[in-house]
């Protein structure tokens, strides 16, 4: 299974990624983890990323793409993977398609966890973290809507998108995700 997990902040992507990766026996590949590993290990890609971060700049897509390509080339990802946090925009989605085509493989599915904004705000506000204040949550949702939500249309048009409601018990959401992905593979 080659899978992308998308959804707004607070939709439970991290939780579902763990359960789905375990179910399909594929690595859960998070861009945050890729960045941390490259920075901690002082890899050439990590050093390039640090130079942007030290200047207070965003790491460019081209460098993020290189890090993801490097991670997907590792042996554990050859039989499948779950990407969490990548792609974040249509350009990255197109680059990912090209990366996979170079390897002679393609995505199996893109799973969208859908949740309305008021439920997201309620859910994140309960956590009590500094970045979970109402105005910050609304800003994160705005950024998601502008930058990441367009990939949902991109993948819907390609026929890869499956959308499930991210409400209810965690186990029920996981079961819905597996059922939706089973329909996609059949």
Model description:
- This protein is an alpha/beta fold and 186 residues long.
- The chain has one domain (2-185): Rossmann fold (3-Layer(aba) Sandwich), CATH 3.40.50.300.
- It contains 9 helices and 5 strands, in the order βαβαααβαβαααβα.
- The longest helix has 16 residues, at 170-185.
- The two termini are 12 Å apart.
- The mean pLDDT is 91.
Secondary-structure map:
Layout: E1 2-6, H1 13-24, E2 28-30, H2 31-41, H3 44-54, H4 61-72, E3 81-84, H5 90-102, E4 109-114, H6 117-127, H7 134-148, H8 150-158, E5 161-165, H9 170-185
Parallel strand pairs: 1-3, 1-4, 2-3, 4-5
List keywords for this structure.
186 residues, alpha/beta, Rossmann fold, five-stranded parallel sheet, 9 helices, 5 strands, 59% helix, 12% strand
Mean pLDDT: 91
Query: What name does the CATH topology carry?
Result: Rossmann fold
- The order of strands across the largest sheet is 2-3-1-4-5
What count of structural domains?
1
In the CATH scheme, the class would be Alpha Beta
Beta-strand portion reads 5-15%
**Helical amount:** 55-70%
What string, H for helix and E for strand, traces the elements in order? EHEHHHEHEHHHEH
Indicate the structural class. alpha/beta
Q: What is the count of helical runs? A: 9
Distance between the termini: 12 Å
Question: Would you identify the CATH architecture?
Answer: 3-Layer(aba) Sandwich
Anisotropy-based shape? globular
| Main pleated-sheet profile | 5 strands, parallel
Uncertain stretches: none
Strand element count: 5
Global Rg: 16 Å
User: Going by CATH, what is the homologous superfamily?
Assistant: P-loop containing nucleotide triphosphate hydrolases
């Amino acid at each position: 299974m080659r899978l992308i997990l998308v959804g707004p902040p607070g939709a439970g992507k991290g939780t579902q990624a763990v359960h789905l990766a375990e179910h399909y026996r594929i690595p859960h590949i998070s861009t945050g983890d890729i960045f941390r590993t490259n920075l901690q290990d002082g890899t050439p890609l990590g050093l390039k990323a640090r130079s942007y971060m030290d200047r207070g700049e965003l790491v460019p897509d081209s460098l993020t793409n290189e890090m993801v390509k490097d991670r997907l080339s590792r042996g554990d990802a050859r039989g499948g993977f779950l990407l969490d946090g990548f792609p974040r925009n249509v350009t990255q989605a197109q680059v990912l398609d090209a990366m996979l085509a170079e390897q002679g493989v393609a995505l199996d599915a893109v799973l969208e966890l859908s949740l309305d904004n008021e439920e997201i705000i309620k859910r994140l506000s309960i956590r009590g973290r500094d970045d979970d204040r109402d105005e910050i949550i609304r800003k994160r949702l705005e950024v998601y809507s502008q930058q990441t939500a367009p990939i949902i249309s991109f993948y819907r048009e390609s026929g890869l998108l499956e959308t499930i409601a991210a409400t209810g018990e965690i186990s029920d959401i996981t079961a819905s995700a597996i059922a939706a992905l089973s329909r996609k593979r059949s």
